[in-house]
Specification:
Layout lengths: L1 H5 L3 H8 L9 H14 L5 H8 L4 E6 L6 H13 L4 E6 L8 H6 L7 E5 L3 H6 L6 E4 L10 E5 H14 L4 E7 L4 H16 L3 E2 L5 E3 L3 H17 L4 E4 L2 H13 L9 E6 L12 E4 L2 H16 L10 E3 L1 E3 L9
Parallel strand pairs: 1-2, 1-3, 3-4, 4-5, 5-12, 6-7, 6-8, 6-9, 9-10, 10-11
Antiparallel strand pairs: 11-13
Length: 328
């Protein structure tokens, strides 16, 4: 119908719709076809096109729960590197749940150009066997399994432990995430190891975790705080800034003065962390750079270009703010 209205061949319409007109179709003809497309409200059937070509221009990002605003910056970075050549689709699991290998394979029915998988669990990495371009993000332990772009979480976690020990803290508690990803395990174990080296100890048998949600974290902290207080806890380290916001919320409601009575710290360095009251000490994890680097690597794989032998590891850094002021 578009070809008939514009007075051209179906092949010409295909070239215009796919943006492949350079050196093939005159500007006048392109304008005529585009007017016909607009008049008829024609939209390219990408699924049908993928059946004909064997692939699509879809890139699918698979993430475990994007309620954490860390993912907004990560997605922005992915979008920047994909440009206009690829469309980004999201596949998101329920809060606290990891995608299964079978679910990832089912997405191949969409014939994506490539897959990005964020923060996969060890089990998922070991069980994935997928043909086609795929890149993992924030996947410590992926070396030798699949291409991955990682964050140097260990450096930031160790810097945080050193900072808290220098502030005079000796007993700490850790509020973890229920999401069983490798990155959460790494930041926890790296912090715990360095804290122990610095002479700090964790509360025994009083562990806490919640979904990446301020309300859930606030409720969890409220439940365990009496026991933590009795154990002499002077600082709570949180798996994410979102958890830390919940701790600050409940601390305020209970009349706990931060940082005079309790110091609080997190991971991610979300934008609100500089504006919270008090401002939050956090390990900066460069989400936008992570998204850009991973998407650039994926595009290289899609286009058959050989990536660098050493895949990037993006640095983390400790941002010290008011929530970990000098401990008395």
């Amino acid at each position: 119908m578009v070809a008939s209205r514009a007075g051209v061949s179906v092949a010409t319409v295909s070239l215009v719709a796919s943006g492949k007109t350079d050196g093939r179709v005159s500007a006048e003809t392109v304008a005529r076809v585009q007017r016909a497309i607009s008049d008829l409200n024609y939209v390219v059937n990408r699924v049908a096109s993928s059946l004909a070509t064997g692939s699509s221009n879809f890139v699918i990002l698979i993430a475990p729960d994007i309620s954490n605003s860390f993912f907004a910056r990560l997605i922005a970075g992915v979008r920047e590197s994909l440009g206009s050549s690829y469309q980004l689709l999201l596949s998101v699991t329920d809060s606290g749940q990891m995608p299964r290998a079978e679910s990832v394979r089912e997405l191949l029915a969409f014939r994506p150009a490539g897959l990005l998988v964020d923060a996969p669990s060890e089990q998922l990495m070991q069980s994935m066997s997928i043909d086609g371009p795929i890149v993992l993000l924030d996947a410590p332990g992926a070396k030798g399994i699949l291409p991955a772009v990682n964050l140097d979480v260990v450096h930031g976690a160790e810097a945080l432990a050193t900072h808290l020990a220098e502030r005079g803290h000796r007993t700490f508690a850790y509020l973890d995430s229920v999401t069983a990803t490798s990155t959460f395990a790494l930041r926890r174990t790296a912090f715990l190891a360095k804290a122990q080296e610095c002479g700090m100890r964790q509360t025994e048998h009083i562990r806490a975790r919640s979904t990446i949600d301020t309300g859930s974290a606030a409720a969890e902290f409220g439940k365990v705080w009496p026991a933590w207080q009795a154990a002499g806890v002077t600082v709570v380290v949180c798996a994410t800034d979102t958890h830390a916001y919940g701790v600050l919320q409940t601390a305020h409601s209970l009349g706990i003065r931060v940082p005079e009575q309790l110091a609080v710290a997190g991971f991610d360095d979300l934008p609100f962390s500089a504006m919270s009251h008090p401002s939050l000490t956090s390990v900066e994890l460069p989400a936008r750079k992570l998204g850009r680097a991973a998407a650039s690597l994926l595009v290289a794989l899609i286009e058959g270009r050989v990536p660098e032998a050493e895949l990037p590891i993006l640095p983390s850094r400790l941002i010290i703010r008011d929530s970990t002021g000098v401990h008395n």
